[in-house]
């Protein structure tokens, strides 16, 4: 047993150097070559960092496209989902209220046009994306408030729609922050 | 065909394409035959030298288990003190506080036993020092421990009669240098180049487009997330685990992460067959496990893609499925796929919140963890399955009136007793744990703990019961996922699940290794016409039936009170 303890201590120290120093430094070093240099990819507008490409942010003003509801108010230092169960009455009331709010701001919509993701909280509270359908239902509102030609906004949404991986795998999506940055730049 | 379905099909195919050859490679590598990774030998020799280890020293099953327990105990004690004092130690750029004693107790056990039940949140609860030097370190070595024990168990059946199960340090080191570390480098680079942070930069702050001030947690996460999946650990760098857009930035990383958590469990099953030169046995076990996995996967995917019936009643569209707790870039299909696989292989990482999945999906997740033998965790999955095998051998021996035998060794009272005790352990821990929790919740709602029992549950009624049942089940299965609505950072949950995790890890390792050690010492009986063959489809089905019957009898009442009751209340 004694010899086991000594061996255990020594191999723990040796492996700590290999697994906690060499390995992460190697990956961090190679990671410097990646797009965000391994710090996370940022989005720049007017010369200022306005966010991270992969981190959703809160959009509540009517002149922007909105993202999904977030259980943590898009707190990027404390991610979480709502953890509400599917039959929870308070939760179902909350979803129903969100539908009413959406209908209030988009009076032209029918209930069946609203995709579920716009009235349900994401898993991380930081979902950066919405589906192309969820962007489409907001086009008229955004165009009206900004006094833009609706067709121009339609084109913007289309050009910001990211296809499934290789066109084959997974869902299509629209990054809300990138779309809104482009919207602000639209003259 | 729908791109979300195609996405999971390609993930599934990739698991097999990588997992199957990996199994052959592992069998050769652990047997000491020539393999292409032999260039790692100087590194291993260096590790042995620095640690004073002779990798060729034979060990019997008792010596092997002693070495294994000894080093695990060391990690428990050393990690406990580091966690409690992380605020006083260096490399804590976000200034996170030290853990309370009960949280440190729970957390260190959780990482040592390959469970990664996290009662803290990564962003605010752990310094970079702890994340790397304790958590990530343990993610490597706990997986390597499981693999080493499985290989010792294989070794017992490779030779006709033997007391030598191989050397713990040898298997343990090679599991890291020849498997976990190289794969982790590949996976972490894929993640880094797709947007997961890998640098040591601390929290950042920016002003959003709308004008809000936002803090963003970052850190060297890619390295951690790679081994979290490869080692079937599951503990996330960020609180939201792989639902977090930095932890799992796009569909490609989602495929990478789900594939990397499946390949070693799949490989270990086939490795068993190749290692003991009974290829067919490996494939029969693989077949049984695959049928079990599909029987849980298919209903789970169909439940989630159908959406929430109560939201459907509100008249809105659920074109892809239920979206609460899920991410748009991943979608309900891939989330359901992941939720089943992560519960059967004991990873416990999530790419969507299980608490918000449909009642029936919760049932499949719970069942996956209760059975815990369809592929299962790194190494330990095969050991769990072996217990079912021994019970199946015993029952079929009784049915046909022959002495039960397994691979040429008589299975006698002592071995069956060990197997029976291990089988009874899981239902006992899960049921007794949940019963005590429910009792405390109903009668001591105001106990003065960090979270009062009356405030434990995030959801009322049947779903609240499921939250408690899930936590105990996850702890026993060393899974680590949770119905995270549960207020679990308080002395009751920290201590109870801590103890359950310890028992649920080490007894199901010690039991099978001991049985294998005992069997291997016995005289070898050559196969004859009277031998019960264990590598046939018939025997595979027999084992499957044993798994079904044992688990249905053990868990049906609890499942009826939780997810089943919720389901029927939703469709009424």
UniProtKB/TrEMBL annotation, chain A:
Per the record, the major location class is membrane
Q: Where, subcellularly, is it found?
A: Cell membrane
Query: Which InterPro entries does the UniProt entry name for this protein?
Result: KdpC (IPR003820)
Q: Which GO terms describe its cellular component?
A: plasma membrane
Q: How does it sit in the membrane?
A: Single-pass membrane protein
Assigned keywords, A-Z: ATP-binding, Cell membrane, Ion transport, Membrane, Nucleotide-binding, Potassium, Potassium transport, Transmembrane, Transmembrane helix, Transport
Q: Which domain of life is it from?
A: Bacteria
What would you give as a GO molecular function for this chain, any one? ATP binding
Query: Whom does it interact with, and what assembly results?
Result: The system is composed of three essential subunits: KdpA, KdpB and KdpC.
Free-text function comment from the UniProt entry: Part of the high-affinity ATP-driven potassium transport (or Kdp) system, which catalyzes the hydrolysis of ATP coupled with the electrogenic transport of potassium into the cytoplasm. This subunit acts as a catalytic chaperone that increases the ATP-binding affinity of the ATP-hydrolyzing subunit KdpB by the formation of a transient KdpB/KdpC/ATP ternary complex.
Q: Which NCBIfam families match?
A: kdpC (TIGR00681), PRK00315.1 (NF001454), PRK14002.1 (NF010606)
In the record, the note on similarity to other proteins reads: Belongs to the KdpC family.
Q: Which PANTHER family match?
A: POTASSIUM-TRANSPORTING ATPASE C CHAIN (PTHR30042), POTASSIUM-TRANSPORTING ATPASE KDPC SUBUNIT (PTHR30042:SF2)
What protein does this entry describe?
A: Potassium-transporting ATPase KdpC subunit
Species, as recorded? Mucilaginibacter myungsuensis
From TrEMBL, chain B:
Q: How does it sit in the membrane?
A: Multi-pass membrane protein
Mind telling me which InterPro entries this protein's record contains? KdpA
Give the highest taxon in the source lineage. Answer: Bacteria
Q: Which residues does UniProt assign to the signal peptide?
A: none
Q: Where would you find this protein in the cell?
A: Cell membrane
Q: Which UniProt keywords apply?
A: Cell membrane, Ion transport, Membrane, Potassium, Potassium transport, Transmembrane, Transmembrane helix, Transport
* Example of a GO MF term: potassium ion binding
Which segments cross the bilayer?
A: 6-27, 64-84, 133-154, 175-193, 258-276, 283-301, 374-398, 418-441, 491-519, 539-560
Q: Which GO terms describe its cellular component?
A: plasma membrane
**Subunit and interaction comment:** The system is composed of three essential subunits: KdpA, KdpB and KdpC.
Described function: Part of the high-affinity ATP-driven potassium transport (or Kdp) system, which catalyzes the hydrolysis of ATP coupled with the electrogenic transport of potassium into the cytoplasm. This subunit binds the extracellular potassium ions and delivers the ions to the membrane domain of KdpB through an intramembrane tunnel.
According to its UniProt record, which protein family does this protein belong to? Belongs to the KdpA family.
Protein name per its UniProtKB record: Potassium-transporting ATPase potassium-binding subunit
């Amino acid at each position: 047993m004694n010899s086991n303890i000594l061996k255990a201590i020594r191999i723990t120290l040796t492996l700590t150097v290999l697994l906690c120093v060499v390995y992460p430094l190697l990956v961090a070093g190679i990671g410097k070559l990646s797009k965000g240099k391994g710090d996370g990819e940022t989005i720049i507008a007017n010369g200022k960092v306005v966010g991270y490409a992969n981190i959703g942010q809160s959009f509540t003003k009517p002149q922007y496209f909105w993202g999904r509801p977030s259980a943590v108010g898009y707190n990027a230092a404390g991610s979480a989902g709502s953890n509400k169960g599917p039959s929870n009455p308070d939760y179902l009331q909350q979803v129903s209220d969100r539908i009413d709010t959406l209908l209030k701001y988009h009076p032209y919509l029918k209930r069946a046009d609203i995709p579920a993701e716009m009235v349900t909280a994401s898993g991380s509270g930081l979902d950066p994306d919405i589906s192309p359908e969820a962007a489409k239902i907001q086009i008229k509102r955004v165009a009206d408030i900004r006094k833009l030609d609706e067709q121009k906004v339609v084109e913007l949404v289309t050009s910001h729609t990211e296809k499934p991986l290789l066109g084959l795998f997974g869902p299509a999506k629209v990054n809300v922050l990138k779309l809104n940055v482009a919207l602000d730049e639209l003259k | 065909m729908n791109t979300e379905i195609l996405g999971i099909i390609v993930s599934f195919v990739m698991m097999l394409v990588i997992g199957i050859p990996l199994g052959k490679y592992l069998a050769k590598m652990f047997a000491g035959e020539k393999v292409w990774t032999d260039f790692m030998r100087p590194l291993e020799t260096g590790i042995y030298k620095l640690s004073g280890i002779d990798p060729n020293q034979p060990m019997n099953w008792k010596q092997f288990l002693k070495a294994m327990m000894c080093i695990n105990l060391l990690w428990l004690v050393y990690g406990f003190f580091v966690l409690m004092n992380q605020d006083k130690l260096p490399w804590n750029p976000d200034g996170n506080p030290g853990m309370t004693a009960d949280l440190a107790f729970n957390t260190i056990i959780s990482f040592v036993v390959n469970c990664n039940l996290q009662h803290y949140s990564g962003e605010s609860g752990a310094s970079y020092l702890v994340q790397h030097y304790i958590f990530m370190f343990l993610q490597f070595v706990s997986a390597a421990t499981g693999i080493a024990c499985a290989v010792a168990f294989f070794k017992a059946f490779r030779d006709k009669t033997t007391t030598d199960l191989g050397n713990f340090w040898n298997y343990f080191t090679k599991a890291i240098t020849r498997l976990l570390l190289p794969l982790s480098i590949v996976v972490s680079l894929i993640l880094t180049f797709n947007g997961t942070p890998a640098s040591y930069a601390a929290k950042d702050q920016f002003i959003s487009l709308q004008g809000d001030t936002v803090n963003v947690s970052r850190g060297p996460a890619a390295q951690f997330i790679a081994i979290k999946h490869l080692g079937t650990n599951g503990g996330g760098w960020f609180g939201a685990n792989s639902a977090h857009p930095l932890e799992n930035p796009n569909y490609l990383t989602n495929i990478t992460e789900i594939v990397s958590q499946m390949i070693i469990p799949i490989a270990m099953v086939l490795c068993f067959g190749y290692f003991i030169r009974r290829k067919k046995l490996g494939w029969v076990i693989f077949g049984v496990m695959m049928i079990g996995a599909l029987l849980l996967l298919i209903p789970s995917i169909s439940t989630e893609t159908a959406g929430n019936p109560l939201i459907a009643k509100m008249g809105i569209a659920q074109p892809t499925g239920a979206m609460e707790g899920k991410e748009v870039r991943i979608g309900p299909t891939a989330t359901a796929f992941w939720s089943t696989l992560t519960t059967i292989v004991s990873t416990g990482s999530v790419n969507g919140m299980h608490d918000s999945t449909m009642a029936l999906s919760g049932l499949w997740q719970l069942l996956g963890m209760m059975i815990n033998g369809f592929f299962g965790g790194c190494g330990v999955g095969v050991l769990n399955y072996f217990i079912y095998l021994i019970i199946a051998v015993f029952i079929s021996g009784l049915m046909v009136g022959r002495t039960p035998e397994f691979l040429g060794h008589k299975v006698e009272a002592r071995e069956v007793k060990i197997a029976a005790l291990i089988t009874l352990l899981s239902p006992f821990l899960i049921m007794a744990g949940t019963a005590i929790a429910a009792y405390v919740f109903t009668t001591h709602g105001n106990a003065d703990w960090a979270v009062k029992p009356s405030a434990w549950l995030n959801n009322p009624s049947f779903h609240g019961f499921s939250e408690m049942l899930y936590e105990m089940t996850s702890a026993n299965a060393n899974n680590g996922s949770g119905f995270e609505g549960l207020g679990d950072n308080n002395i009751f949950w920290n201590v109870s699940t801590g103890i359950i995790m310890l028992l649920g890890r080490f007894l199901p390792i010690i039991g099978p290794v001991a049985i294998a050690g005992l069997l291997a010492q016995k005289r070898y009986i050559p196969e004859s016409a009277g031998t019960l063959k264990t590598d046939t489809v018939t025997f595979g089905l027999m084992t499957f039936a044993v798994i079904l019957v044992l688990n249905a009898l053990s868990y049906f009442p609890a499942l009826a009170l939780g997810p089943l009751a919720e389901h029927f209340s939703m469709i009424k």
